Amino acid sequence: MPQMSRQDPLIEHHTVDYVPLAERHGKARDLFTLWFSTNIAPLPIVTGAMVAQVFHLNLLWGLLAIALGHLLGGIVIALASAQGPRMGIPQMVQSRGQFGRYGALLIVFFAALIYIGFFISNIVLAGKSIVGIVPSVPVPASILIGALSATAIGVIGYRFIHTLNRIGTWVMGSALLAGFVYIFAHDLPADFLTRGGFNAAGWLATVSLGVIWQISFSPYTSDYSRYLPADIGITRPFIATYLGATLGTILSFAFGLVAALATPEGTEAMVAVKQATGALGPILMVLFLLNIISHNALNLYGAVLSIITSIQTFASRWTPSIKVRVVLSGVILAGCCLVALGASADFIAQFIGLILALLLVLVPWASINLIDFYLIKRGVYDIASIFQADGGVYGRFNLHAIVAYFIGIIVQLPFANTSLYVGPWANLVEGADLSWLVGLAVTCPLYYCLATRGQAQKVRAVKLGYTD
Hints:
Blueprint: H1 4-7, H2 29-38, H3 42-53, H4 59-81, H5 83-87, H6 91-94, H7 96-99, H8 105-133, H9 139-156, H10 158-185, H11 200-215, H12 235-261, H13 269-277, H14 281-313, H15 322-341, H16 347-376, H17 383-386, H18 399-410, H19 435-464
Helix pairs in contact: 2-10, 2-12, 3-12, 4-11, 4-12, 8-9, 8-14, 8-15, 8-16, 9-14, 9-15, 10-12, 10-14, 12-13, 13-14, 14-15, 16-18, 16-19, 18-19
Keywords: Membrane, Transmembrane, Transmembrane helix, Transport
Transmembrane segments: 31-55, 61-82, 102-125, 137-160, 167-185, 197-217, 238-263, 283-305, 326-345, 351-376, 397-414, 434-450
Protein name: Cytosine permease
């Protein structure tokens, strides 16, 4: 057995570098517990309540739309996660093999912005949760407690994050199931099954929300699978991630929907959870707080890796140390806390709106990532080139990927329905943001055609003696 001090350090010593085969460890089931536990949290529960409160679906149609949306979107996150064991590097570093060394910078920037946005939103939410549980604690102190706790987990890194989520799967899963049992064991409103109904707009909006929810995790899924043994294959990481991500979110969304229907119409989502679960409510609130903090560590971890990736793009010989990751975590912590302490009452809603708008840039990236890995290169990448100053065989810029990426963004804009921008065709289906569907439908075949055409041209050039 390897020594703890060398192979299993308390604080993760890798950052964006390749994880050697000798240091690989873990099981595919670790991915199930990570993504299952991560998604049992207040935000998906609140979002699930929207299915009844905003989209006006009844229980049956709401559950069907929730399940379909997450089952479809889960394919994207699972395919991204399954790349980790083969590549052994973070997802954003891998993008250099698709966009070129410098071409990947824009994607990395957007990813870092999304991580930081979620980190700030979650420390505000954690602060409010602490105040709700212990009103005597001042809001600024509550925000700092939530931020420092998440930062400590993020600094320790990969192994500790997985350990917490293994525990969280049993604790949070059991608590949520107990909540379901409590609700159905007590009297339900007379309109519990009949409140709402079916409407095409609300149903499609719920399906789209589920798909977008899953896609939003795809930029950092392989960050948490890159330590798995390289011979684990594709199927096992795919299944573990798919089941964990979809079951966790479906349960949380369904719990929010059930709680909303079990309380008087118009009740605020988390208030509905407290009312519907009675004596169990305070326990759930404490567990939700702990889960917010644990989940937020993933956002900090991803933000740090993205920033390090950006810096290393211009310093190819630099191998960041543990100290660099700790310092960067501290800088991000300080900046985010300053923003959170000055946040307005509707800060979370505004930030979530920004993040959802940024998903416009993630859909074409996810399309290119999956097409390139599974259909073009078939999982075979030159890892050394990814870290070379000139991009090696991938170059500084891959125009095929960059062109497909920007076209993928542009074609979504007319259909976008976000808080920041509403396209002219956004309400073809009222309330449903279908821009992601257009982005996938255009970017996937476009990039495949451009990439395969580029490969064919290289082969012809070699045969004609125009290149080495």
